[in-house]
Amino acid sequence: MEFQEVVRRRRMVRTYADRPVDPAAVTRALDNATRAPSAGFSQGWGFLVLDDPADVSRFWDATTDPAEGPDSWLVGMRTAPVVVIPCSSKAAYLDRYAEPDKGWADRDEARWPVPFWHIDAGMASLLILQTVVDEGLGACFFGIPPEYDGAVREAFGIPDRFDPIGAITIGHPADGERVTGSARTRPRRDLGSVVHRGRWAADDRPDPGP
Fold first, then answer.
1. Cα(104)–Cα(89) distance, rounded to whole angstroms?
2. pLDDT tens digit string along 165-188?
3. What is the rounded distance in angstroms from the CA atom of residue 49 to the CA atom of residue 182?
4. For the chain, what is the domain count?
5. Cβ(166)–Cβ(86) under 8 Å?
6. Looking at the whole model, is its pTM more than 0.85?
7. How far is residue 157's CA from residue 150's CA, in Å, rounded to a whole number?
8. What are phi and psi of 129, to 5 degrees?
9. Does 160 map to a domain?
10. Alpha helix positions (H), the chain
11. Does the residue 202 lie in any domain?
């Protein structure tokens, strides 16, 4: 598939067909994820792959309240046969930049203008999403509610050195699966409203306030 076609087709899929996913496709997506850029080539990421039905079920049990009935989003998402949890390691970046060729021996987090460990894991996640499209599959990146972070860590042994930045469901889109969520109700912003050349152009939209 041409790259522009991959970009055009990429969207969040929230309902999946009852079909297995070729493990080789997941491996290719993960291999491509490791090609993402990372500050200082720190590569401070880790990917937890859940492709056994029992493990996938444990993930949903760990991230939902059994007292609350599943909504339509959860019902659809639980049909995904594969869940990948990308994680970032701040410690890996602080350690890397304390090495002699970088020289930040104090490992002071304040030296970082933004948390590159999360940014780099996010770029790796996008490569997973794009590869999935190229494989003829669908995927959805979503956040893990903070109140369930501890349960996910405990269920799957995620060490303190790593922080889940979200989760990615992967599978074959269900027949008739269509665009849902905000992408269905909100228009895509055009280039003229988001690109500023030479100087930030005035924004005519009303100030949303604090």
1. 17
2. 999 999 999 987 666 666 667 888
3. 27
4. 1
5. yes
6. yes
7. 10
8. -60, -40
9. yes
10. 3-9, 23-33, 53-62, 72-77, 90-96, 116-134, 149-156, 182-185, 191-194
11. no
Distant-in-sequence, close-in-space partners of 9: CB < 8 Å, separation ≥ 6: 1, 133
Q: Looking at the domain assignment, is residue 192 inside a domain?
A: no
Angle, CA of 119, 122 and 128, to the nearest 5°: 150
Sign for the CA dihedral angle at 143, 31, 39, 160 comes to positive
CB hemisphere CA count around 18 (13 angstroms): 0
Tell me what the mean pLDDT of segment 34-51 comes to: 98
Name every residue whose Cβ is closer than 8 Å to that of residue 107 and which is 6 or more positions away in sequence: 94, 95, 97, 98
Six token digits for residue 3: 């790259």
CA dihedral angle for residue 178, residue 179, residue 185, residue 186, rounded to 10 degrees: -160
Which DSSP helix (H) or strand (E) runs through 47? Answer: strand 45-50
DSSP annotation string for 48-86: EEE-SHHHHHHHHHHTS-TTSPP-HHHHHHTT-SEEEEE
- pLDDT tens digits for range 24-36: 999 999 999 999 9
The domain that holds 111 is classified in CATH as 3.40.109.10
Q: Does residue 196 sit within a domain?
A: no
Specify whether the CB–CB gap between 124 and 34 falls below 8 A.
Answer: yes
Whole domain around residue 144: which residue ranges? 3-184
What's the token pair of residue 124?
């790796």
